[in-house]
């Protein structure tokens, strides 16, 4: 349907997309999901990823959402990758429910249950909360309510905003000091300003914009906001912190960050150094790890890749050719992959 021109929401309305994945996730056992997750994360590792953020969001009811979060928790230790989990019970409104009911279910049942589990010492890698803040899914006020409820139990907002339509999600996210917002294809100029002021990280997802044939988000405007302010001699001169994500999901099946950096350079006009910074230290910052991960320096984790190439730019330049040049991957100084 997508290739024939159907929009993301049309696919979902026809029973595909998140709704389809949710029904299969419900049927799958926890062990089966864990095995799949570990296999997929091994593939990411071979592409040079050492830390990943992964979401629930294909349960949409309490037990399956918790099952997904338990899978992510159990996966820590089963793979060398560091996993930072995100609760996304507000990924879609299931058939037969409405936005109001689903918001109530999340705030009154799912989040208290998560708090209970965390108090028992479980779900230790769960750090963030996400909402698909979008026209026809969760509006700005429901999103605010869900994110604030997550914040009240110590989760950091890191949510989908202005992907398909502008609805003012970014302005709200900046108000509640969201740690990160993703997608942002339809962000407004005012939203860019607010994100820069709030220090919220923009997580851009080039494979998703590509596969859905969306116009790319205004990455240059985000980055150059800081330069413009600096030139005006403004006291405050930060641009938006731009990070990159693979957004691996059934809609955009891409596990390779080198490919994502390539797309970001071509479709979003990032320079190669900007793409590298976005995929490493800025991505680390979007997960609260900006001081410990994402760069090679004293007092940081030694997470890095060794390349067999004439210059580092080849990791971006060679379209889908990264497997030939990533010769070793290290996590916390230990060799975790060798070609
Ligand atoms: N836009 C909503 N959520 C996901 C896609 C999930 C899916 O289609 O399975 C995203 O971040 O791209």
Automatic annotation (TrEMBL):
<dbReference type="GO" id="GO:0019557">
    <property type="term" value="P:L-histidine catabolic process to glutamate and formate"/>
</dbReference>
<dbReference type="Pfam" id="PF01979">
    <property type="entry name" value="Amidohydro_1"/>
</dbReference>
<keyword id="KW-0369">Histidine metabolism</keyword>
<protein>
    <recommendedName>
        <fullName>Probable imidazolonepropionase</fullName>
        <ecNumber>3.5.2.7</ecNumber>
    </recommendedName>
</protein>
<comment type="pathway">
    <text>Amino-acid degradation; L-histidine degradation into L-glutamate; N-formimidoyl-L-glutamate from L-histidine: step 3/3.</text>
</comment>
<keyword id="KW-0408">Iron</keyword>
<dbReference type="GO" id="GO:0019556">
    <property type="term" value="P:L-histidine catabolic process to glutamate and formamide"/>
</dbReference>
<dbReference type="InterPro" id="IPR005920">
    <property type="entry name" value="HutI"/>
</dbReference>
<dbReference type="GO" id="GO:0050480">
    <property type="term" value="F:imidazolonepropionase activity"/>
</dbReference>
<feature type="domain" description="Amidohydrolase-related">
    <location>
        <begin position="29"/>
        <end position="336"/>
    </location>
</feature>
<keyword id="KW-0479">Metal-binding</keyword>
<comment type="similarity">
    <text>Belongs to the metallo-dependent hydrolases superfamily. HutI family.</text>
</comment>
<dbReference type="InterPro" id="IPR011059">
    <property type="entry name" value="Metal-dep_hydrolase_composite"/>
</dbReference>
<keyword id="KW-0862">Zinc</keyword>
<dbReference type="InterPro" id="IPR032466">
    <property type="entry name" value="Metal_Hydrolase"/>
</dbReference>
<dbReference type="GO" id="GO:0005737">
    <property type="term" value="C:cytoplasm"/>
</dbReference>
<keyword id="KW-0378">Hydrolase</keyword>
<dbReference type="GO" id="GO:0046872">
    <property type="term" value="F:metal ion binding"/>
</dbReference>
<dbReference type="InterPro" id="IPR006680">
    <property type="entry name" value="Amidohydro-rel"/>
</dbReference>
């Amino acid at each position: 349907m997508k290739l024939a021109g159907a929009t993301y929401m049309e696919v979902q309305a026809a029973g595909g997309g998140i709704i389809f994945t949710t029904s299969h996730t419900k049927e799958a056992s926890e062990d089966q999901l864990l095995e799949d997750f570990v296999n997929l994360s091994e593939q990411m590792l071979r592409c040079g990823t050492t830390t990943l953020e992964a979401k629930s969001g294909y349960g949409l009811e309490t037990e399956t959402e918790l099952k997904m979060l338990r899978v992510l928790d159990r996966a820590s230790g089963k793979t060398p990758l560091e996993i930072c989990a995100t609760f996304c019970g507000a990924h879609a409104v299931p058939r037969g429910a409405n936005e109001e009911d689903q918001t109530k279910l999340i705030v009154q049942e799912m989040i208290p249950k998560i708090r209970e589990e965390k108090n028992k010492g479980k779900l230790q890698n769960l750090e963030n909360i996400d909402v698909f803040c979008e026209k026809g899914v969760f509006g700005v006020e429901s999103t605010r309510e869900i994110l604030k409820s997550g914040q009240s139990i110590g989760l950091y907002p890191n949510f989908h905003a202005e992907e398909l339509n502008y609805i003012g999600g970014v302005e709200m996210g900046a108000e509640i000091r969201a740690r990160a917002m993703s997608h942002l294809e339809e962000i407004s100029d005012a939203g860019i300003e607010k994100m820069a002021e709030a220090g919220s990280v923009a997580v851009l997802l080039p494979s998703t914009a590509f596969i859905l044939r969306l116009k790319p988000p205004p990455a240059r405007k985000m980055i150059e906001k800081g330069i413009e302010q600096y030139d005006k001699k403004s006291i405050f001169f930060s641009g938006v912190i731009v990070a990159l994500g693979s957004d691996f999901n059934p809609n955009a099946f891409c596990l390779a960050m080198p490919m994502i950096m390539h797309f970001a350079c071509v479709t979003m006009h990032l320079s190669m150094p900007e793409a590298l910074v976005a995929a490493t230290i800025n991505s680390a910052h979007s997960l609260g790890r900006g001081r410990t991960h994402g760069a090679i320096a004293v007092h940081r984790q030694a997470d890095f890749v060794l390349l067999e190439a004439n210059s580092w730019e080849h990791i971006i330049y060679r379209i889908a050719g990264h497997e030939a040049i990533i010769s070793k991957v290290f996590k916390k100084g230990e060799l975790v992959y060798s070609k």
